[in-house]
């Protein structure tokens, strides 16, 4: 009887051992969500408006200055606060126009090199519709 009992015990112990290994290798149920990336703020949409864009054609220095001026009812020209700055390396400058200014004018662009005026555009009015771009080209020769 001892001989018949040994194979039975070996099979039983093997089954218990395999069952324990199987139970230990089973992952625990997930109770928490995985970590999520921190939410980033979405910037508000840009206010509706339009653009004016200047292209300076000709030989220009790397640090030319440009400004936009507006003309009053008496014919005097005034610099527009905020619409002044260096030309981009490709000879362009673009400014955003608020919806409340659409269709107003007259305006003009001035291009300066070392404080001296080297170019001036013809007069123009600001865009009349939202998202429109008025493009002005000035030819200069320094």
Task: Give a nutshell description of this structure.
The chain is of the alpha+beta class and 142 residues long. Helices cover 17% and strands 37% of the residues.
Query: What is the CA-CA span between the terminal residues?
Result: 116 Å
Instruction: Note the main sheet.
Output: 4 strands, antiparallel
CATH class of the domain at 49-139: Mainly Beta
CATH superfamily of the domain at 49-139: Carboxypeptidase-like, regulatory domain
Rg estimate, integer Å = 38 Å
Instruction: Provide the spatial order of strands within the biggest beta sheet.
Output: 3-2-5-6
Identify low-pLDDT runs: none
How much beta, percentage-wise? 35-45%
Number of strands: 7
Structural class: alpha+beta
Helix content: 10-25%
Q: If classified by CATH, what would the architecture of the domain at 49-139 be?
A: Sandwich
- Number of helical segments with 4 or more residues: 1
* Morphology call: rod-shaped
Overview features:
alpha+beta; rod-shaped; 3-stranded mixed β-sheet; 37% strand; 1 helix; 142 residues; 4-stranded antiparallel β-sheet; single chain; Immunoglobulin-like; 7 strands
């Amino acid at each position: 009887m001892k001989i018949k009992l040994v194979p039975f015990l070996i099979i039983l112990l093997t089954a218990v051992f395999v069952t324990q290994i199987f139970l230990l290798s089973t992952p625990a149920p997930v109770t928490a969500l995985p970590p999520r990336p921190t939410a980033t703020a979405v910037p508000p949409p840009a206010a509706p408006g339009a653009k004016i864009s200047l292209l300076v054609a000709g030989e220009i220095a790397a640090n030319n200055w440009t400004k936009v001026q507006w003309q009053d009812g008496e014919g005097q020209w005034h610099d527009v606060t905020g619409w002044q700055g260096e030309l981009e390396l490709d000879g362009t400058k673009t400014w955003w126009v608020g919806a409340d200014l659409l269709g107003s004018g007259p305006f003009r662009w001035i291009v300066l090199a070392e404080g001296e005026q080297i170019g001036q555009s013809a007069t123009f009015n600001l865009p009349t519709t939202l998202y429109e771009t008025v493009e002005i080209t000035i030819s200069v020769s320094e």
